[in-house]
Amino acid sequence: MGEASTQKHISIKVQTKAAKKRKEILAIIGFMTPALIIYGVYVIYSIFMTFYYSLFDWSGIDNNFVFQGLENYITLFQDEVFWESLGNNSLLVGASLLTQLPLGLIMALLLFSPIKGIRFFRSVFFMPFLMSTVAIGILFIFIYDGNFGLLNALLEMIGLESLQQAWIGKESTAIWAVIATVCWQFAPFYMILFRAAIVGIPEELYEAASIDGATAWHRFKNITLPLLMPIIVTSAILSIIGSLKYFDLIYVMTMGGPNNSTELMATYMYKQTFTNFNMGYGSSVSFSMFIIAFIITLFILIGERKRRGVE
Amino acid sequence: MKFRLLLVFLLSLVVIVGCNPTNTDVSTGGENEPENESGNDTETESGSESNESSEPEEDVTLTLWHIEDGPSGEAIEAAVDRFEEKNPGVTVEVSQQENDPYKSKLVVAMGGGNPPDVFSSWGGGWLEQFVNAGQVKEITNDIDQDIYVEAALSASTYGEKVYGAPIGMAVVPVFYNKEIFADLGIEEPETFDDLTAIVETLKENDIIPFTLANQSKWTGSFYLMYLAERMGGPDLFSEAYNRTGRGFDDEAYIEAGHKLQELVEMEAFPEGVNGMNYDTGQSRQLLYSGKAGMQVMGNWLVNNVRDEMPEFEEKLGFFLFPAIEGGQGAKNHIVGGVSPVFSVSESSEHQDLATELVKELASLETSTQMANTAGDISAIKGVEYEDPYVQEISDVLESSEAMQTYYDQTLPPELAQVHLDTTQALIGLSMTPEEAMAKVEEKAKELLD
User: Fold this and answer.
1) What pLDDT was estimated at residue B36?
2) Residue B118 · residue B361 · CB < 8 Å
3) Superfamily name and number for B171-335+405-448
4) Which end of chain B has less neighbouring CB within 10 Å, N or C?
């Protein structure tokens, strides 16, 4: 009798547990569905459709779809402008990683240093990121102008006339001029990320380290940096992906010119799709962009997982 | 519990639905993808409205997309008002857009199967893409062809069939600063040698001979078009385009490229010419401030001057691009174009009404208003010009023996892009004329043969 009652008791318990779990799953689904619908329609579906369109010779404005398999991709691999734009994207990735992240970190650390009026600088540092990209683009067009630009005037003032040039008018300097502008715009974004992460590091760690006699450099190397690692990895991914699909400033400042020297994959895709009426070919450019970004992200994530595993 | 869940779900749906329109609104100013959304959005709206209106005695709504701003935009609005007055119960939803985004927006709208009933273009190869795609209604017999200037109507005529009605025209002379020319005792040039002599004189006096913002590319194309016409004569381009004789790699084109690079090597253009943007006024600033002496530009420059620096107008003179000795072209052969051209979409549900709207837009009244307020030359015969400047430019157009339409608007867009890119490379001295012209010819073979 006693046994039976405990059994019953247990079965009720199991039942309630299962019911609870079912409810939980329902709740999760309920919360996720809206986002999933949006994500599915605007991301997953779009990616598949891009690939689908890339298999056709299609102008984008008529119903004349000519299926041609992977021919767009074969053309793409032989297209020197595409390779040039991929090269420029790699330059941008490299430059972003090597300047935006360190700059962001330095600025974030500066914000915690006991300098008077640092709050003012917090706003100043963050300013570029608040400006509209188009405004930044036009501003820098004028700064880089070869005839009356601010940069050339500055060079003249400090006696470096020999360095004066038309920064975005020459094929050799145009890409660097634009990359510098991109870095100027986005470094503050990483500053904010790092700043938030630094705030999250417990004060006690620093206190303990000080008691043990650690110098500022040691504290940075052994406490701040390791604890920032996850956010640095996230920033690196953001920065790499952002650079791979970058579009805005190029469109505003150079339109990919002069002579394709600042062409990026995204601007090339835009040109092919909307200027040259090659929706099919443009789609193959954007799908390749997706694949490249996807593979790189995968590598970073695997690398990060391994690193954590080692620790 | 379940109820609460449902509530959360519903609430989130409300948020999503509420968010969507604002999102698209915000993105109207942006580029690329957001454009698609907003483009499609207006589309669906207009589509559903015209669906409703197909029932009799319901109000009809037509959509009109154009890119005219300032006084020209007002002329369009006035024409729309006249149309609405004549057709009670018909509302025209006018959407005025920016030049460059408009191009991609219309492509997306056409591709999505929901284009506006009436849209504007520049005729030429761009409109032809839509014509070939079966998206544009033929209006050969709907309009009175006799009221239009022949050269203007030809820009939207493909194989004897008319697909658009023009309002205005533009020509491209060489504008110059009269004060500088008078101070230095320079006369308007008759030959290309005179012109290079002027370039040298201006250089000696530390004045940039030609101001040019060639990041925009079409600006530099003017020089190549003129040089090519002056070398190879008025038929050179049409032969190359129609594949009936000389090609884009003809000796005349190559020589034109050499002449252009000769100018570059003489430093006839400002420093960093390929990085300067026409739309932000970088080239005009040099002209206004007296740092540069000349500019090859369409007559809309007069409009820019009046808008940006009215006191400069009295210094502004113009002459026609001089002939080259030994070349087949002549000084009174001009480069010009047509804008705007209005067309009806094939998929419009009210084609007849839309055609009426096109006729009202491309009418003598509209073009008179545009000529007198915006300084456009009329594409419709019989306009009396009040503005002496426009009268003068219009006289030039009438006395010219041949008109070369802009390459970039006449050629198919993909070929036009190659022409623009190679011309920019020529000016940047990063390509030889032989290479550049071979590249254009190669693309032409691919697309036109």
Assistant:
1) 39
2) yes
3) Periplasmic binding protein-like II (3.40.190.10)
4) C
